[in-house]
Amino acid sequence: GAVVSQHPSRVICKSGTSVKIECRSLDFQATTMFWYRQFPKQSLMLMATSNEGSKATYEQGVEKDKFLINHASLTLSTLTVTSAHPEDSSFYICSASVGLAGGTDTQYFGPGTRLTVL
Amino acid sequence: AQSVSQHNHHVILSEAASLELGCNYSYGGTVNLFWYVQYPGQHLQLLLKYFSGDPLVKGIKGFEAEFIKSKFSFNLRKPSVQWSDTAEYFCAVNARGSGTYKYIFGTGTRLKVLA
Q: How close is the nearest chain B Cα to the Cα of A78, in Å?
């Protein structure tokens, strides 16, 4: 159980275009979904936290107008990279949790999406 | 600011050797602690977690970790590693910041086990 999928797994796009990445919890309802960015040989950097039906909370330094997050249902969250530029090239990972109180949630991670902006 | 440190970035061991990966965090309040593993080509998955109670927690595949509050540490251990343990290991802390809990990950430790 607790499977999270991401689509697409890889995407290559031209500079200036927008890219949408989907994150789905396949066998559970995810109250909270997280979006991370991982640079080579570095840790996961939390970009934003989204709760179903409400606006995402972005981490400091993350442009909310550039990285649009939508969490319209308990099983789907999307990250749209708008007007992508080569510096946005990275590995984007989503995770989902059921939203237990007290910070005891386990996060279930998707396989990641490799974005390359030419 | 809260932070998580993993001091060993790369570890190479022979099969049957014992493993200990260090994890230290900086936060004075209540924390929930996790170790995640990422096998080659796979996504992150939970190894073990500590919320309260016995500070020695056991996880999957023979891993265990000990929470030492006085040292702000949550080191991961395994008495005898196998080739299949080759992976990247991430320590994570979920701590209450300004009103909400936030996950913070360490930089990861890449473990290579030689057959």
A: 18
Residues of B whose CB is below 8 A from A106? 34, 46, 49
Which residues, including other chains, have CB under 8 Å from residue B21's CB and lie 6 or more apart? B6, B8, B11, B75, B76, B77, B89, B91, B109, B111
Q: Which helix (H) or strand (E) holds A91?
A: strand A90-97
Model confidence over A66-89: pLDDT tens digits?
999 998 888 999 999 999 999 999
Sequence-distant (6+) residues with CB within 8 A of A28 are A1, A2, A96, A98, A108
Tens-digit pLDDT profile for residues B34-71: 999 999 888 889 999 998 899 999 999 999 999 999 99
